[in-house]
Amino acid sequence: MRHFGHIPSATRAGLFHREPAEFTADSPARTLAVALGATLYSPATRPRLADDVRKQAARGVVSMVLCLEDSISDADVEYGEANLVRQFADLAAGTVTDADTATATDADSATGTTPDAGAVTDVPLLFIRVREPRQITDLVTRLGESVRLLSGFVLPKFTETRGRAFLEALTEAERTSGRRLFAMPVLESPELLHLETRAETLAGIASITAKYRDQVLALRLGVTDFCSAYGLRRSPDMTAYDVKIVANVIADVVNVLGRSDGTGFTVTGPVWEYFRPGERMFKPQLRRSPFLEGRAEDLRTALIEHDLDGLLREIELDRANGLLGKTCIHPTHVVPVHALSVVSHEEWSDAQDILRPEQCGGGVLRSAYTNKMNEVKPHRAWAERILQRAEVFGVAHEDVGFVDLLTAGLAG
Model pTM? Predict the structure, then answer.
């Protein structure tokens, strides 16, 4: 799979200075953590879940969470588990294997044609959000051979005490299945939100995740639960960063768990929960200037009407605050998240200059765009992260902006 693999190869060539690289569920954890992108959640009870997964893969989704927790009622858990087993079997029966792909490629080469690299031959990275540790070992056993399509589990309301049992169950499931399985803990507990217990809770989470570092793919933020603890809900005109109590928690999570010194993890952005038009209280946040050419103004209007201008603003703030990727509950959110994850040519140029071998001793460089200072030592960690993101999301051509990427992604 690859980001923007759902659009024609000729279109990709026109958008990217360096195209997104392909990756698989067996790629290194460091690659997958960056590649998660817009992780689309879906209730595990959907009767045609396998078809939903295939459809979303064809639209550019590369990671999904099939939820047995908050998105379904307590009474539906047993049905949801059984449905997952059935739907994974359906997916496994219809999945194109690597051998099939190789055979098709050989046949195409013999006839002088090349298959589009964006053709969907596999399912996205699939994770199951469980309620209790026992579900991890139970589901892995019940999935049987189709467990090969499972990338891991999402662990709710994660703390050191609660998380230990989940991670022990994950270790046991890996042993019995013979498959690498990742954990994605969700940080959403009241202990993390409340000021008097936050530091101790963060220290505990840091300790337990360090112990299981090889299995923790990324940390997810449960901002809806944070707001719930105080009876709050942000409007579509506001981002998570406008709710100060939430913004403070995000900052502390990144401070302790998102460091670039080798101890940190990828921390993903919070969910954007709006997808229907509603009454607007404030002026649109989406500036007109990037949209002034041709039909781009129509795209701007459509985004505003669907309350996605706030989403775009929040994605930018996510990245500025050290988060990467985003939890999504609606397919319309996927392309904006991916479009704004593509590395600009200017970012890539600066990162390349900073990381040149001859600059290892430090110093200050004038940007190739002649508009900023690149200080080699302080900006090195930033540059390394830029190149990691460039590998999986690609580098845009110098004259390509996020509107072009949005338009292509939506059309694809």
Answer: 0.87
